[in-house]
Amino acid sequence: MTSTDQLVVLHASPAAAGGAPFVEVPVAYDALVLAGFGGPEGQEDVIPFLRNVTRGRGIPDERLEEVAVHYRHFGGVSPINDQNRALKAALEAEIARRGLDLPVYWGNRNWNPYLHEAFQEAADAGHTTLLVLATSAYSSYSSDRQYREDIAHAIDEAGLAGRVTADKVRLFFDHPGFVAPFQEGLDAAVTQFLGEGFAPEEIQVLFTTHSIPTADAERSGPRDVDWGEGGAYAAQHLAVAKHLMQTLGGAVEGGGGVPWELVYQSRSGPPSQPWLEPDINDVIEELPSRGRKAVVIVPLGFVSDHMEVMWDLDTEATDAAKEAGLRSIRTATPGVHPAFVTGLVDLVLERLEGTPVAERPHVTPLGPWRDVCAPGCCENARLGFKPAAAGISP
Fold first, then answer.
1. CA-to-CA dists, residue 246 to 182, 314, 357, 371, angstroms
2. 176-330 and 3-172+337-359 share a CATH fold
3. How far apart are CA 173 and CA 170, in angstroms?
4. Of all helices (H) and strands (E), which one includes residue 65?
5. Residues 297-320: tens digit of each pLDDT
6. CB within 8 A of 105, min separation 6: which ones?
7. Domain 176-330, what fold?
8. pLDDT (tens digit, 9 = 90+) per residue, 160-175?
9. Is the pTM of this model over 0.85?
């Protein structure tokens, strides 16, 4: 390797700057930054918020208004900001319980408070070695690399380059703390349907996540691995779903003949652009022809009950189940479930203590995921590469 080929990990702590996938030495982080998606908190916020979400795509306001109706149905208020406030408070309480001196700051990608403001607030308080926790568990452009781009952009926008470092907590799709709330909800829903007299083969489990363009899905995860159709994004969801079914408790321990499938929702691209399928509502419509009488909807791709859960699942998918004559239960997202909050702080401690990779918990063969992303990981097929923290350039 020549001097011009040296690895570059933007804004990294010295321990992460070498580009090794796992950081197994302690790092004295002095603050945690919670990075969220953001959401409107009033009718007047909706269109400006959607402009932020779709910036660079040239989508006119009249098309944005088609999506805005979902937010307007709930008074123009997305629940996601309050959910992040609750998560921040829960993290602070758990951090205090463990006796850690680690203040928590919060910033969003698309709405107030913005991520660059959180970095500025931390720096103004004298915190310079930052660890970022993004509220997203899986590999893809929008759920991983874009957050890493946001970190790099926020540091530059705040004028903090060279003054602060920022590493990122690893993706936690198969961490026990993230998986436990889904297991709890799945077990309870299947047990309830069995108690109502449904046979295992009459119950369909649908694990659902946000659809993304297939071109982005194919670029998700490290590029030197053949992940199969849907890239690392689909592979991670499938691995967690398989684990949940294999550990299903109660009267159908180990799955017990209950059929399951990974489905997608919340597609927003033009009809000409391929996105991951099948759509949850299309699958629900055909379930009676498969002999199903009840459906368990598990929002596996979501950390909390934000708009895509409240509208696309609690409204549209639930209505589709009723129209199909199916009993339905939508299980809970992790939210501020104690196991999830505890697990997130465990992930923070991994980086504070430099936990060896062999000692890091995970429930699928794909984990534990990397601390530092591989070059080219989760490229946006349309936009290409932008500067991104917590990973080797590009």
1. 13, 26, 25, 28
2. yes
3. 9
4. helix 61-72
5. 999 999 999 999 999 999 999 999
6. 31, 32, 33, 34, 118, 119, 121, 122
7. Rossmann fold (3.40.50)
8. 999 999 999 999 999 9
9. yes
